[in-house]
Write a structure and sequence with these properties.
single chain; 11 helices; about 400 residues; 6-stranded mixed β-sheet; about 30% helix; alpha+beta; 9-stranded mixed β-sheet
């Protein structure tokens, strides 16, 4: 396959992993990234958690690629000398109404092969997280944290070491097929490739639709604001403390997460973002807002989720309410214990009927493959998603490995 010319669009962790996977197959790879650096969007704004696979329906693409992805990521970080901390995670039930859902997560985790998962009581909660409280919890001792930006850089380094090219500050404006060739247009011209895989995250629907794919699922961006525990109280959290997901709400809710640098993140909330890339709290994009608000799927979603929106709005406008959510799990936390933290923006794929697309979605035609949806655990699963994408792309294009 040495003569195969392949392009990957998107320099987040999945795009970098996909470019590396193609290079490992012997392809001549070009990785396009519109920003002047890699991992500038979702990869560089997430919490760094390596998910073990607790929540996902057994047999789903998410479940399979998450478990494979954990294995590949642990191997890769060890080989590159990158930090990988199995700090562990507890999913805490606050009262009896949550026990049934906790048991259901346990069953899924066991079915997914999550190592070491077990149900624990209040005494063991206190042993693992002395400042946390709950009537029961699941303990996932091998849930880990990493620096996903460092991992992305290392993946891209492998691409260049194999003779590939990483083109930063090069927005892709068009992808179109011409016979057995795929043309990739940028601001500086057009290049031809035998195979193109797009991993464009927050812009994935626009790029895919422009290349002839369906308009849906559409990306609706949801912001997630975090706070950080002050250094003097950060020791109250040793690892990851999560709530039991409530099926009445489409998002998980506030939790406490140790970062690889030792900081403790509190959050996030979840609310419609004023722009797909509005990380600065003063940023707005009229185009992005218009596309979201006038998308029929979002209007249907919003109409069905008024209580969830009210809950998230309260934590978005009131830091006191925000911290109060975290204090349910770590009693004693107050507004004085937190500092402003980062903002992430989730590229949430949504169908026209207003349903959130939960699993990974891969579409395309001919010699073009699009990754249309890669929500959590997308970063965890990145190297496994790359394997899956490359295999699907080669098979679809009729190319031999």
């Amino acid at each position: 396959m040495g003569s195969l010319r392949a392009a990957v669009v998107g320099g987040g962790i999945i795009g970098a992993a996909t470019a590396r996977e193609l290079a490992m197959h012997g392809a001549d790879v070009t990785l396009f990234e519109k920003e002047p650096r890699l991992a500038a969007h979702q990869t560089g704004h997430n919490s760094g958690v390596v998910h073990a696979g607790l929540y996902y329906p057994p047999g789903s693409l998410k479940a399979r690629l998450c478990r494979r992805g954990v294995h590949l990521l642990a191997e890769f970080t060890a080989a590159r000398g990158l930090p990988y901390d199995e700090c562990g995670k507890i999913v805490v039930a606050l009262d009896g109404s949550e026990l049934g859902r906790l048991d259901a997560i346990h069953e899924r985790a066991v079915a997914n092969g999550v190592p070491g998962i077990r149900r624990i009581g209040p005494d063991e909660i206190a042993d693992i997280e002395p400042h946390a409280r709950g009537i029961a919890a699941l303990h996932s001792p091998h849930t880990a944290i990493v620096d996903y930006v460092a991992v992305t850089t290392a993946l891209a380094d492998d691409v260049t070491a194999a003779g590939g090219t990483v083109r930063l500050a090069t927005p892709v404006t068009a992808v179109r097929s011409r016979g057995d060739e795929v043309l990739v247009g940028t601001g500086t011209g057009t290049d031809g490739f035998d195979l193109v895989i797009t991993c464009a995250g927050l812009q994935s629907d626009r790029l895919a639709h422009g290349a002839g794919d369906l308009a849906t699922p559409a990306i609706v961006p949801f912001l997630g604001d975090y706070h950080l525990l002050r250094p003097e109280v950060a020791g109250r959290v040793r690892g990851l403390i999560y709530p039991v997901p409530d099926p009445r709400y489409p998002f998980l809710g506030v939790h406490l997460t140790k970062r690889i640098d030792g900081a403790i993140m509190v959050g996030p909330n979840a609310f419609l973002a004023p722009g797909r890339e509005a990380y600065d709290r003063r940023s707005r994009s009229l185009r992005d807002l218009r596309d979201a608000v006038f998308f029929p799927g979002f209007r249907r979603f919003a109409a069905r989720n008024v209580p969830a929106a009210m809950r998230e709005l309260r934590t978005a406008v009131s830091i006191r309410r925000f911290v109060a959510e975290a204090a349910k799990y770590v009693p004693g936390l107050t507004v004085a214990d937190v500092l402003p933290g980062p903002r992430g923006i989730r590229a949430q794929a949504m169908d026209a009927d207003g349903s959130l697309v939960d699993d990974f979605v891969i579409t395309g035609h001919g010699r073009v493959v699009h990754l249309r949806n890669a929500p959590s655990p997308g970063a965890t699963s990145s190297m496994a998603i790359a394997e899956y994408l490359v295999e699907a792309a080669l098979e679809r294009a009729g190319l031999q490995t």
